[in-house]
């Protein structure tokens, strides 16, 4: 079961992880550049003031010109008989009828960090792995900040999930969560320690040692440093 399979159908699906893509009733809809940025920003913030939105997207323009550019871009949003956003004179919000994949990732991470689901509920793991970065080809300052915030939250959730799965005697799933964290950040020691712990829990000492030495070589090559004393002690005890 996927994390969204039990949710009611909605008008639109907005994809922000890996790439920008909008689907309405299952059909791909083209969105122009500025309209894409409006839709992405509002979707991520859920509710935003018009002045804040205009100032973020057009930082070098005067306030009057920025708000005028915002009005023009809003008219270019696809409608298809439905509104993707809800506007008031001062605010803009994403419609409840739009499902945003970044929201699903955030919800999965929060479920793990706040222990809202049983540790062996596979939806928590499925909701955190195999998802791309937030709009990786965009270099806007606000996108960079949102991307790093989402990345850090996912990494901490994967570390937490791996630790909880290991404590529950589920080393294979703990290993999967730890490896997912490493794919996002190859130099993250906490994730590598979780991999070694999972191997040791399964009695695979050789695999644990092989992974430790591979990480040690990576650290030396990339940063010129050694694994932490905590990690080294883990290996010596093994």
What do these coordinates show?
- The protein has 238 residues and is α+β, with helices and mostly antiparallel strands.
- The chain is elongated and about 65 Å long.
- It has ten helices and seven strands.
- Strand 1 and strand 2 form a beta hairpin.
- The two termini are 37 Å apart.
- The strands form two sheets. It has a four-stranded mixed β-sheet. Strands 4-6-5 form a three-stranded antiparallel β-sheet.
- The model is unreliable at 1-8 (pLDDT under 50).
- 56% of the residues lie in helices and 10% in strands.
Summed up:
The chain is of the alpha+beta class and 238 residues long. The protein has ten helices and seven strands.
Distance N terminus to C terminus?
A: 37 Å
Q: Gyration radius, to the nearest Å?
A: 22 Å
Uncertain parts: 1-8
Q: In terms of quaternary structure, what is this? A: single chain
Order of helices and strands: EEEHEHHEEEHHHHHHH
Q: Which secondary-structure class do the elements indicate?
A: alpha+beta
């Amino acid at each position: 079961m996927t994390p969204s399979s039990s949710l009611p159908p909605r008008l639109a699906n907005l994809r922000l992880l890996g790439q920008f893509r909008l689907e309405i009733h299952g059909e791909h809809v083209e969105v122009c550049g500025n309209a894409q940025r409006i839709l992405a920003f509002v979707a991520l913030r859920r509710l935003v003031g018009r002045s804040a939105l205009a100032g973020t997207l057009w930082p070098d323009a005067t306030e009057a010109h920025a708000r005028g550019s915002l009005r023009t871009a809003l008219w270019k949003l696809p409608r298809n008989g439905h509104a993707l956003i809800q506007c008031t004179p001062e605010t803009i919000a994403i419609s409840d009828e739009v499902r945003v994949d970044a929201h699903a990732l955030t919800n999965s991470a929060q479920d793990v960090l706040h222990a809202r689901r049983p540790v062996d509920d596979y939806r928590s793991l499925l909701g955190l792995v195999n998802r791309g970065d937030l709009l990786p080809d965009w270099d806007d300052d606000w996108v960079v900040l949102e991307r790093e915030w989402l990345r850090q939250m996912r990494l901490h959730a994967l570390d937490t999930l791996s630790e909880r799965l290991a404590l529950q005697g589920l080393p294979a799933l703990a290993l999967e969560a730890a490896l997912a964290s490493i794919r996002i950040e190859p130099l993250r020691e906490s994730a590598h320690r979780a991999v070694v712990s999972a191997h040791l829990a399964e009695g695979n000492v050789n695999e644990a040692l092989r992974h430790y030495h591979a990480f040690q070589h990576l650290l030396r090559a990339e940063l010129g440093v050694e694994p932490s004393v905590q990690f080294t002690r883990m290996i010596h005890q093994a």
